[in-house]
Amino acid sequence: MSKILIIEDEEAIAELEKDYLELSGFEVSIENRGDTGLKRALEEDFDLFILDLMLPEVDGFEICKEIRDKKNTPILMVSAKKDDIDKIRGLGLGADDYMTKPFSPSEMVARVKAHLARYDRLIGSGMPENDVIELRGIKIDKTARRVWINGEERNFTTKEFDLLTFLAENPNHVFTKEELFREIWDMESIGDIATVTVHIKKIREKIEYNTAKPQYIETIWGVGYRFKV
Fold first, then answer.
1. pLDDT confidence of 187, banded at 50, 70, 90?
2. Which residues contact 18 (CB under 8 A, 6 or more apart)?
3. What letters, b where the CB count within 10 A reaches 16 and e where it falls short, cover 102-135?
4. Does pLDDT of 22 surpass 90?
5. Which of 65, 108, 69 is nearest to 90 (CA)?
């Protein structure tokens, strides 16, 4: 349930707005003074603010500025003042919308819903994208640990995935088996480096069209392997 704070000194208007918003499923709080409204706005978590312009103690312009300095929460400014200069000033301070009194409560609810939906989309688009490597038909999603070859997903074991990813992140660099063993298996001389050869063979079976003539992971005889781009 989205939480909304109404900062409005006309109690009848504030209560009317609250009634309509609560009927639409919102949780609503009211403050009738600018100073107390600003304090709650900064200290508590709300999903949207409905802010009157003319308030006792601290006016709506100052509240809008203070909120916007610290939060990206949507602000819907309302006022009986119809002058364009006030609207321009309010929007310039960071308000997302400006409604002139008197207005339809149902229109206010519609605008609230629109701004909340828009904010949710913006927050969603700000999510970090997956770390993806794409090289000549191979797509490696490091975040999801998934691999596609020419659009077809293939399954890899943990070490196969790590080895393929390491080579793809360092294209055209020749690595010895010892270097790959240390990098992927995190060991020096402990263990059998022949496991590198086995894993390269398995990876080729999953990514190469012809394992006898590999396009991606080349064997550099007497040295090691490289991912060719």
1. low
2. 6, 28, 30
3. eeebeebbebbbebbeebeeeeeeeeeeeeeeee
4. yes
5. 65
| pLDDT attached to residue 112 | 93
Which pTM does this prediction carry?
0.54
Q: Which residue has the higher pLDDT, 124 or 90?
A: 90
Q: Are strands 217-220 and 224-227 parallel, antiparallel or unpaired?
A: antiparallel
What residue has token string 């409604």? Answer: 99
Length of the chain, in residues:
229
Backbone angle region of 101, left / alpha / beta, with phi > 0 → left and psi within -120 to 50 → alpha: beta
Helix (H) or strand (E) holding 136: none
Question: How is residue 129 annotated by DSSP?
Answer: P
Q: Give the other-Cβ count within 10 Å of 193's Cβ.
A: 16
